[in-house]
Amino acid sequence: MTHSDRIDELEKKFTENPRRYFPPLANECRKAGDLDAAIAICRAHLPQQPGHMSGHIVYGQALFEAGELAEARTVFETALGLDPENLIAL
Fold first, then answer.
1. Over the stretch 13-68, which tens digit does the pLDDT of each residue have?
2. Within 13 A of 81's CA, how many CA atoms are on the CB side?
3. What is the DSSP string of the chain?
4. Using an 8 Å Cβ cutoff, are 63 and 90 in contact?
């Protein structure tokens, strides 16, 4: 399955249940190099689910890869507030 196929599959699931599928969709966009889409998805959906750990991790990774280091740090610090032992956030 290509990134494009996986993204298409996740977009369908996201349409049905955005609360559940926004982190996997954002992560696939990130892995495909579409950092703007990954960041936009997280910015749109994390405010409704501030305790969504994987959402914070994907958001932080996308920001880091986009060179937004200060904002990435803030997001990872938020993630550490939820799970102080999360290896990615650390």
1. 989 988 889 999 999 999 999 999 999 999 999 999 999 999 999 999 999 999 99
2. 10
3. --HHHHHHHHHHHHHH-HHHHHHHHHHHHHHTT-HHHHHHHHHHHGGG-TT-HHHHHHHHHHHHHTT-HHHHHHHHHHHHHH-TT-TTT-
4. no
Residue 25's CB is within 10 A of a number of other CB atoms, namely 26
38, 62 Cβ separation under 8 angstroms: yes
With beta carbons less than 8 A apart as the criterion, state whether 25 and 11 touch. yes
The confidence score (pLDDT) of residue 3 equals: 63
Give the integer Cα–Cα distance in Å for 2 and 63. 24
pLDDT of 74 strictly over 90:
yes
User: Rg of the chain's alpha carbons, rounded to an integer?
Assistant: 12
